[in-house]
Design a protein that fits this description.
There is one protein chain. This protein folds into two domains: 265 residues, P-loop containing nucleotide triphosphate hydrolases (Rossmann fold), CATH 3.40.50; 129 residues, no CATH class. 31% of the residues lie in helices and 14% in strands. The chain is built from 14 helices and twelve strands. A seven-stranded mixed sheet has the order 2-3-4-1-5-6-7, sandwiched between helices. A three-stranded antiparallel sheet has the order 8-9-12, with no helix packed on it. The chain has a two-stranded antiparallel ribbon with strand order 10-11. The longest helix is centred in the middle third of the chain and has 23 residues. The relative contact order is 0.16. Bound molecules: guanosine-5'-triphosphate and magnesium ion (MG). Guanosine-5'-triphosphate binds next to helix 2.
Length: 490
């Protein structure tokens, strides 16, 4: 690819809609931003850092309204939507700022936060009394929920056949075999049986759980709510699974298949559609967080899976991709930012290479998005920098990152104890230019030449002496803010 994705698409249709053009927003403009990503991509830390750096005034030189001194005050507001849990900002912030800082627990549910930004508009800079307000509504939701969209185009039989075929392909004799051999003995034509449905569904969930811990299949988890059911835990809408069904057989009333079909349709009606209707279609902008280093760690298969999932995620934003979604869309998402997170795992001399990997991962989807009035951009960021940079003590010193790897993390035979600081050179990020390069073993070597990323312990952050506020040190959060919010504050 000659052009980087960011160069290629930065101007496609940007400025499609400005805040001033929306009559309903004239009184108190509201900007709704979605934050998503697959499991452990870094959503909770990202949102905590975004809010903390906005409210308590972090270092944000590339957030233009900030560097121009026009941001007057930022504060949290009560939520506008009574039906969504509030993002537990204070808890996550306190954990990260503790004397022994901790990363947040896995969240895996939807949550929301509302802020107000008071600012001086550019044109009236000289009039000190003039201040404007922008409401910022941020919705944090699991990327797996987006992967459920294609279910709307499938009936139960189609979904069963596809899911069983995927499981057979992914199964290495361990992850799906118990569930597959159980379903083999279930006759879809038999009378419906609650106990049987519960057992089969539990085994199917075990398979999905195995997928999560299995490097090759970790991203194949669908239906997206099965492992993190929330309020629907134990309900019939989450107690079904695919069955081996022959196309020749009719669907018998009161049969096991009829029961599973009903529940599959309930899942779509009660869980998938309301999310898209009530939340997704109200968003103005979206950031998709990607743990590209986990992909690189996992090798070719995992990278290809990641690419496939990112394509499926981006498809959800393409008007016309799903007719039901298109029919209920209220507003168009005009900017999507793909961000490779945790870039502090890498020395800054390699950040551009990581961005290139991300651009390659989303290149196909970006091409399809061209001309749709959506600006796509890629960036690498760290929400909370947990390392510093240095040089290795080798005869030929190499740029490395220095930090405390989390207890139990390993590189080869070396297992880290969670206490000792070490310098790590994770390897050279490969230079991909097309997705075909993922297949090149020289580009993504395995064995002792494989890339080695480990998770780090968060660092202790000092508070200021004057007002005891503190902000999380970050990488490029200000550029993210500028892309997602900057033009709303002119
Ligand atoms: N070094 C570093 N690690 C990070 C950063 N952001 C996230 N992490 C690591 O990634 C893990 C997951 O981050 P979360 O923000 O909890 O990810 P999430 O997407 O909310 O995860 P789920 O809620 O499980 O879906 C953390 O526990 C950290 O180990 C970062 O900026 N730097
Ligand atoms: Mg989370």
């Amino acid at each position: 690819m000659d052009l980087k994705l960011s160069e290629l698409t930065e101007y496609t249709g940007d400025g499609f809609r400005t805040v001033g053009s929306r009559a309903s927003d004239l009184v108190r403009p509201t900007l709704r931003i979605g934050v998503t990503g697959l499991a452990r991509a870094g959503k909770t830390v990202f949102l905590t850092s975004l809010v903390n750096n906005l409210i308590d005034g972090g270092r944000l030189p590339f957030f233009q309204p900030w560097s121009e001194g026009r941001i007057l005050k930022v504060y949290l507001e009560p939520q506008s939507d009574d039906a969504i849990p509030r993002f537990e900002y204070e808890t996550h912030r306190d954990d990260l700022f503790a004397d022994n800082p901790r990363w947040p627990e896995s969240t895996r549910n939807i949550s929301q936060l509302r802020l107000t930004i008071e600012y001086q508009p550019t044109r009236l800079l000289k009039r000190a009394l003039n201040r404007k307000k922008l409401s910022l509504e941020i919705l944090d939701y699991p990327g797996e929920w987006l992967l459920d969209l294609p279910l709307l185009n499938l009936n139960y039989r189609e979904w069963s056949q596809k899911t069983i075929a995927d499981a057979r392909r992914l199964d290495d004799g361990t992850i799906a075999s118990e569930w597959l051999s159980f379903t083999k003995n279930c006759n879809p034509q038999d009378a419906e049986d609650e106990q049987l449905a519960m057992k089969a569904s539990a085994l199917f969930k075990d398979y999905l759980r195995n997928c999560q811990h299995h490097e090759i299949a970790w991203s194949a988890i669908s239906p997206g709510r099965f492992l993190f059911p929330g309020d629907y835990d134990g309900s019939p809408a989450l107690t079904f699974c695919p069955l081996e069904i022959s196309d020749q057989d009719p669907v018998r009333p009161q049969s096991l298949e009829a029961m599973m079909t009903r529940r599959f349709e309930s899942y779509k009606t009660h869980l998938v559609k309301p999310f898209f209707r009530n939340h997704f279609t109200r968003l103005d902008r979206q950031i998709v967080l990607v743990d590209a280093m986990q992909g690189l760690n996992g090798g070719r298969e995992v990278l290809m899976q990641l690419e496939d999932n990112l394509t499926r995620i981006l498809n959800c934003f393409r008007p016309g991709y799903n007719s039901w979604l298109t029919s209920i869309w209220r507003r168009r998402i005009d900017r999507i930012l793909f961000a490779a997170t945790k870039v502090d795992h890498l020395h800054s001399s390699q950040h551009k290479e990581l961005e290139n990997v991300l651009a390659t991962l989303v290149a196909q989807s970006a091409k399809r998005a061209e001309g749709l009035g959506t600006a796509l951009k890629t960036v690498t960021l760290s929400s909370f920098r947990a390392t510093r940079e240095g040089l290795s003590k080798d005869r030929e010193p190499r740029p490395c990152v220095i930090g405390v790897p989390l207890q139990g993390q390993r590189i080869g035979d070396q297992v880290f104890d969670g206490a000792k600081e070490v310098a790590i050179f994770p390897g050279d990020i490969p230079r991909f230019s097309t997705q075909e390069d993922f297949n090149d073993p020289r580009a993504l070597p395995g064995g002792t030449d494989a890339l080695r990323f480990v998770q780090f312990q968060p660092l202790r952050t000092e508070t200021t002496q004057t007002d005891s506020t503190a902000t999380l040190p970050h990488v490029r959060m200000d550029q993210v803010m500028n892309f997602l919010i900057g033009d709303y504050l002119t």
